[in-house]
Amino acid sequence: MAAASSTSRNLPVIVITGTPGTGKSTHAQLLAGESPVPLKHINVGELVKEHHLYENYDDDWQSYTVDEDRLLDELETLVADGGVILDWHSCELFPERWIDLVVVLRCDHTLLWERLEKRNYPLKKIQENNEAEIMQVVLEEARDSYAPEIVVELKSEGSDDLESNVARIVRWVEAWQRDHPSS
Ligand SMILES: Nc1ncnc2c1ncn2[C@@H]1O[C@H](COP(=O)(O)OP(=O)(O)O)[C@@H](O)[C@H]1O
């Protein structure tokens, strides 16, 4: 299926996705600060909580069941003009036409386990996420949902990875802007 990114926008929409703990928010914050064009960091999980875009909350798993229709409605206006980083542990929900770049962060599972333990997640939630990272669930989801040329897999283990990843995305933003000049 061909990529369907909007040509009418002159600011991109970037998804940063990955298993919880891989570094999405850390990357999105740094990217928002270093981007040559305004990019608003939208932490989708926080948006779901703040706007009550969920059907229920599961105490055992410490997670929300998202109301996907309402979430999409809420996001539609936020992404309309571009200039957005969508930070979420899933990506298949976002329509192809919204998205210009999908960054999938990856992390060694032992390191990921340590990061999630620090969050005091319940053991079964740590195990589930660890397994998902090993099985590269989010990467497969991204590859199944978007054109291969817009999906980029990046390692996020140390601060050197963080810096080089953000520098790489900044170069991508610069190139994207050259290809989408203001009319
Ligand atoms: N590339 C990295 N280098 C060093 N620490 C990282 C890196 N990526 C994430 N971390 C650390 O891992 C933890 C989880 O990162 P976070 O950005 O909250 O993940 P996510 O948003 O994917 O759940 C944080 O303590 C963060 O500082």
TrEMBL record:
Documented EC number(s): 2.7.4.3
Binding of ATP, residues: 21, 23-26, 119
Region (NMPbind): 43-66
Reaction catalysed by this enzyme: ATP + H2O = ADP + phosphate + H(+); AMP + ATP = 2 ADP
GO function term, MF aspect, one: ATP binding
SUPFAM superfamilies: P-loop containing nucleoside triphosphate hydrolases (SSF52540)
Coiled coil regions in record: none
Any GO BP: ribosomal small subunit biogenesis
Superkingdom field: Eukaryota
Region of interest (LID), ranges: 118-128
UniProt subunit comment: Interacts with small ribosomal subunit protein uS11. Not a structural component of 43S pre-ribosomes, but transiently interacts with them by binding to uS11.
Protein name: Adenylate kinase isoenzyme 6 homolog
Naturally occurring in which organism (per UniProt): Fistulina hepatica ATCC 64428
